[in-house]
Amino acid sequence: MTSENGREGPNQFAALVTRIGDWMFKIHTAYFFALVLGLCALASGVFTTPNIEDYMTIARHPLSTPAFDNKLDSYVLSSPLPALLMGIVGLAGSRLTFAVGHLMLLVFVLWYTMNRADRFSSMAGRLVLVAFVASPVSLVALSWLGQPDPLIIGGCALLLFNRRSYVLLIGGGLLAWVSFEQGLFIIMVTSLVGVPLLFGREGRVRHLVLSLVGVLAGRALLMLYQVGFGIEQSTTRAEWLAAHGLMPVLRSAISWWTIFIFSLFAGSWIIIGSFLARARLVGVSATGFVVAAVAALGVSLLTYDMSRVFALVSWPLLLATACWVAREYRTQELHRLAAVTLLAGLMLPKVLVGAGGLYGPAYAELVNWVRP
Fold this sequence. Notes:
Elements lengths: L1 H23 L4 H16 L7 H9 L20 H8 L6 H26 L3 H11 L1 H8 L5 H13 L3 H12 L3 H20 L4 H25 L8 H8 L2 H9 L1 H7 L5 H14 L4 H14 L5 H8 L1 H14 L2 H17 L4 E3 L2 E3 L2 H9 L2
Antiparallel strand pairs: 1-2
């Protein structure tokens, strides 16, 4: 009797997971999209970036050098595109409209990403959305509204799912106007790891070259725009970091190392583990993925917002991995995997580690407060 009761709980949970997974892939795509994003917003919260006024200043003064309260904040001029878009469509009048505009942009980008993934595999789009919800990139995108993060996420999708020359040029140029440094890393990861994983090694050099041409051309156009209108960016991201110092970053990583490791992928560690396990079984090398993930970790340790930066630059890795898993796993396996990952993403804490401590929902602030 005890043995049967001991098995009853796990069996009931497995049956529940199976039912949830089957339902997730039967519901209409639009309903699934809205419901999952809504649950994600409830679980993680929706907030504006602390320096939203800096970006709003760019939108209000697109043809001149904005007057920032802090001179060091002029580094945001290297990421002007989303703010300029909000100014063009008239959504820079208040914090609320500016944030709502960025939220609408994020929704559009995710819908585009989901639909492009579905063209690769019929079930990939839903797993990609689940990966977004379970990973810290969702916390980044929803908790820093006003930052250029939605366009970084969109640039990853443009580069990963397209092979046409002009789209690769546009994708690279787009990243140059939102974050040139992160764009370079994303292009390297996408071209050398993501594209070969999904489409094979053929064409990866062409993909890399065209994307690099796009990001360099975009960088040149950004400089021409700033020089042409006399816009002076007095501080770069590197100078901003130098002014604040690198030691707080390293101390925070060491102090919170267990949370930091978990925060890299959060609930999406389940998808990563599934990829590594299946890749080994079918003889697919995961070396490129591991090297790229370690490189992304190294890059994040040289920035002030460690987990936040890692979430963005590693997104093309997670995006490609989710699509690969959706193609390689059998239907029932995939349904259960998606259900478990979604539940983990909604229930497990998504916390970002930065030089200032932990960032995230209220419990992160509580941990910062009680920490000795």
